[in-house]
Specification:
This protein is mainly α. The protein folds into two domains: 58 residues, 434 Repressor (Amino-terminal Domain), CATH 1.10.260; 106 residues, DnaA protein, C-terminal DNA-binding domain (Chromosomal Replication Initiator Protein Dnaa, Chain: A). The protein is globular, with a radius of gyration of 33 Å. The chain contains twelve helices and no strands.
């Protein structure tokens, strides 16, 4: 187009009014441009993808889990009380499987069953035994573990961090095996209910089927049961 205009300008053809250059106008008939990232995002927002059925948690499972949390029962402990595999319970909570009627009945029964209260001395002794067993499994110096002051946090000290992790794992196993609440376990070992809950939640989040923490928990649980 530009070349044609130059030719017209340089010749007598420019005197012909029919060939006079016209002002450029924005073309209305153009090829469709590829959608921008923002327009694609807008389209996705306006037309969201419906969630799959597997991503939704059964409302009965959600209600059971709320009751479990209110009762202060750890996930592993609850699964054991109900006679349900811990990984099955995790899949149910995540909506990865639909609950069977028999499984729902077991979970409800575990919530409704009365829990026996353990004397603080028994809980403290069991917790200490579990800590020692975990230390042996993880090749951690037992004297250093027992001498560690957990009332003062030392996050920059690797040995203190390992000892604190062992104590968390011991709290987790004790709560599961003895069926004690966060408050009862805290009173027995001189800790707060909030700290016990944090420890149990931390181990629950870190534990995956077959990883190091899971292997140690399984091995120590089998030893203390024996």
């Amino acid at each position: 187009m530009a070349a044609q205009l130059d030719i017209i300008a340089d010749t007598k053809l420019r005197e012909d009014p029919r060939l006079a250059p016209r002002p450029l106008l924005r073309q209305t008939c153009v090829k469709a441009a590829a959608p921008s990232a923002s327009s694609s995002l807008t389209a996705r927002v306006q037309n969201p993808v419906a969630p799959s059925a597997s991503s939704s948690v059964d409302p009965r499972i959600a209600a059971i889990d709320r009751r479990r949390a209110a009762a202060g029962i750890a996930h592993d402990q609850f699964a054991r009380l109900a006679g349900v595999n811990i990984w099955t319970w995790r899949d149910l909570r995540r909506g990865n499987r639909a609950p069977m009627g028999a499984t729902l009945a077991k979970l409800q029964a575990a919530l409704d069953a009365p829990r026996e209260t353990k004397p603080p001395q028994v809980v403290a002794a069991f917790h200490r035994l579990v800590m020692q067993t975990i230390a042996m499994q993880m090749a951690f110096d037992l004297a250093m573990l027992l001498a560690t002051d957990f009332s003062v946090q030392r996050p920059s000290n690797p040995q203190w961090l390992r000892a604190a992790r062992i104590r968390q794992m011991a709290s987790y196993i004790t709560s599961v095996e003895l069926g004690v609440s966060n408050a009862d376990l805290g009173r027995a070992i001189g800790d707060t209910r909030a700290n016990i809950k944090y420890a149990r939640d931390a181990i629950e989040d870190l534990r995956e089927d077959g990883n190091e923490i899971d292997r140690v928990l399984v091995a120590v649980t089998q030893l203390v049961r024996a």
